[in-house]
Amino acid sequence: MVDFEKAYFREKELRKRAEQLLEDKSRELYSSFYDLQQAHHDLKQQQNQLVSSERMASLGVMAAGIAHEINNPIGFVSSNLNTIKEAFNDIQDFIEVLEQQLDVNPNDAVVHKIRESLDKFDIAYLLEDFGELSKETLEGLDRVKQIIADLKSFAREDSGDMQELDVNDCLRGALNILNNQLKYHAVVDVSYGELPTIKGFYGKLSQVFINLIANANQAVEDQGSIKIETCCKDNSLYISVEDDGPGISSDHIDQLFTPFFTTKPVGEGTGLGLSISQGVVEEHGGSIEVSSTPGEGACFTVVLPAPQ
After folding, report:
1. For the chain, which residues score pLDDT lower than 70?
2. Could you give the strand order of the β-sheet that contains 298-305, starting from the edge strand earlier in sequence?
3. What is the torsional sign of CA 211, 215, 216, 221?
4. Which residue, 46, 135, 174, 186, could crosslink 209 as a Cys pair with Cβ 3.0–4.6 Å?
5. What is the pLDDT of residue 266?
6. What are phi and psi of 209, to 5 degrees?
C-alpha cells in the first residue's frame, strides 16, 4: 500500500512538472511568435517608408528640374515687360509734352488733326490701361517666381543635419504650392502666431503641411471652410489644420496613421500620406494629434518641441 501511494504521488509530481514544462514552452513559443510578428510589422513599415521615400525623391528631382526650366523664361519675360513698361512711360511723357505744345495753337489745322488722332485711337486710355495691365502682369510673374522658389525649397534634398527654419515660412510655402487647388474649392483662413525658429528639415515639414492641407481640401464640400493656425505655448509649437468636412468615425481614427490605410475611393489615395507625415514629425521630436466629431469636421495638429 505504501509503494502504491509513493508511485501515485511520484506520477502526480511528474505530471505536474510536465504540465509546467509544457506551459513554459507554450509561453516561450508565444513570446517568440509575438516578437517575430512585431519584427515583420516593423520590416513592412520600413519597406513602405523606403518605397515612399524613393517616390518622393524622384518627385523632388522632377520638381527641381521643372522649376529650373520655368525660371529661365519667367526671368526674361519679366525683364522684357519691365523694359516695355519703361518705354510706355516715355511715350506717356511724350504725349503730355505734345499736348502742352498743341495748346499753344489750338486752332491750327495740323493741331486739330493730331488731336483727332489722339481721340480716335484713345491714346490716353491705352496708356493708362497698359499701366494697370503691366502692374498686374508683373505681380503675376512675381507670384510664379515665388511658387517656383517654394517648389525648389520643397524639392531640395535635406542634408543630414537639421537647419534653422521658420515654421510659418514653411507653412506659407505649402499654401503657396496648393493655392491653385484651394482657391477654387475652399475658403482658407490662416492665422500665423509668433513662433521661434527651430532646427528641422524644410522639405520634409513642407511635405507634412501639404499632406494635411490637401487632405482637408479633399474633405470639404465646395466653398468649405479650412482654418489653419500656428501658435507657441507650453514650450511647444502648434500647427493646426481644421476643416468642416464630414469628420472621421471613431473606428477609423486609430488606423489613420497605418500605412496604406485610406478612407478614399480606390485610385484616389495611397494611404501613405499620414503615415509618412507621422514619421517626419516624430523625426523632429513631435507628434500629430487628431480630434474629430462625425458630421462636424476634423482637426489635425502638429506639435513640435520649442527650442529650450
Report:
1. 1-6, 8-9, 45, 47-68, 150-160, 259-272
2. 186-191, 224-233, 236-243, 298-305, 287-292
3. positive
4. 174
5. 46
6. -65, -40
What are 259's three cell numbers? Answer: 500605412
Residues ≥6 apart with Cβ < 8 Å to 155: 59, 60, 61, 62, 63, 64, 67, 203
pTM check: above 0.70 = no
